[in-house]
Amino acid sequence: MSVAIITDSAAALPPELVARHGITVVPMWLTVRGEPELEGERALEELVTEDRVTTSAPTPGEFEVSIKDTLRVHDAAVVLTIASSMSATHASALVAAQSVGGDVRVIDTANAGGAEALVVLAAARAAAAGATLTEVEARARVVIERVRLVATLSSLDHLVRSGRVPGIAGWAGRRLGINPLFEFRDGKVRRLRPALSQETALDRILAVVRRTRPEGEPRLHVAALHALAVDVAHDLLERVAVLDPATAFVGEFGPVMVVHTGPGLAGLAWWWESA
């Protein structure tokens, strides 16, 4: 059995990884000054200067087209979506799967960005190794349970205004010099103790990665995620290199994610694979 992997653009997978693993990406939508456009049609640097940008999920019809296209060459498909608590994307994918029928599973990754990407990559590798549909789904769910995402921002104002991230309202970290830290997991935001500088924030993120390492000789899978902060993301990836990760890449947030986070976000998503 061959299993296709489909996800949405909120996973922020680098194009080379998408191509290497044969992953289908369904783009999210933006509305800029009242006009709809697909994510990726405009440079991110241009979009952050716009003050009238909203986002929306792919339609069920768009997922249906992607599912049907993949089923022409594969026996089954697994659709992995951004957290349902953040977007209607998961609901759209469910409607599409029910319409198409057949061997299609839709999974809420309960995450976004690099964490969603790591789930997608694990599923894609299982599928490439010849796993069955049930085995690919099981692999994805194992990673969903283990994956972590911790990031820092200079300000949480964008997250508060977006209203898309539950648990963040009223905690904007506006005090001068404070670098808010937060964890996104199981579809929810959990605030962490803020840092007094970006350097301290990055050190603390690395400390969490080390602290979550299980016993034995586990393999680390990690993504350095960022929103127009590529130098910081590469710095984080260099720091985590001492842990000899089996997977390591930089994933830049697309416009849909940056609309909600604002520029300047940087962090790590990771999971430990037991030996």
Low-confidence stretches: 169-173
* CATH-assigned fold name of the largest domain: Rossmann fold
Count of separate DSSP helical elements: 10
Question: Distance N terminus to C terminus?
Answer: 27 Å
Share in helix:
25-40%
Count up the domains.
Answer: 2
Strands, count: 13
Order of strands in the sheet with most strands: 10-9-8-13-11-12
Beta content: 25-35%
Q: SSE string, helix = H, strand = E?
A: EHEEEHEHEHEHHEHEEHEHEHE
The overall average pLDDT, rounded, is 89
Main sheet specs: 6 strands, mixed
CATH architectural group of the largest domain? 3-Layer(aba) Sandwich
What's the level 1 CATH class of the largest domain? Alpha Beta
- What's the gyration radius in Å? 18 Å
Q: Strands, helices and their partners?
A:
Elements: E1 3-8, H1 15-21, E2 24-26, E3 29-32, E4 35-38, H2 44-47, E5 53-56, H3 60-71, E6 76-81, H4 89-100, E7 104-108, H5 113-128, H6 133-146, E8 148-152, H7 157-162, E9 179-185, E10 188-195, H8 198-211, E11 219-226, H9 230-240, E12 247-252, H10 255-261, E13 266-273
Parallel strand pairs: 1-2, 1-6, 6-7, 11-12
Antiparallel strand pairs: 3-4, 3-5, 8-9, 8-13, 9-10, 11-13
